[in-house]
Amino acid sequence: MSVRLDHGSDDLDEVHEINVTPFIDVILVLLIIFMIAAPLATVDVAVDLPTANAAQQPRPDKPLFLTLKSDLSLTLDNDAISRAALGSAIDAVTNGDKEKRIFLRADKTVAYGDLMTLMNEMRTAGYLHIALVGLDSGSAPPQPAAKAQP
Question: pTM for the complete prediction?
């Protein structure tokens, strides 16, 4: 509140104006504090990531799944393959089509470096279209498909 300083009368009338100068001072001090504190609030975690690149493309009608199990063994669709025969096994299934997308599944206990090693082996074999498969957080784990008996 402000007060009139003339001594004309003993009654002090209220002045209906707000002095905003202290309010602006407080806001500027808070602005400076937040400008200094905001960069300190972000956390940088140093991670040694292997290199990889991926592009998003539509899913084909019959996807080709390559699975990396927890014991680091490989299966192509439902057939077990060795790492040495990875390129030739994929070539046989895709008829040499290097543009075919391969859906890569890995057990969640597989180390990240092992997964990237497999992806690099696929890249060396000429298969660059790799999609990583995962579960939605709300979905249940898939049940294995039953094999038909002849």
Answer: 0.53
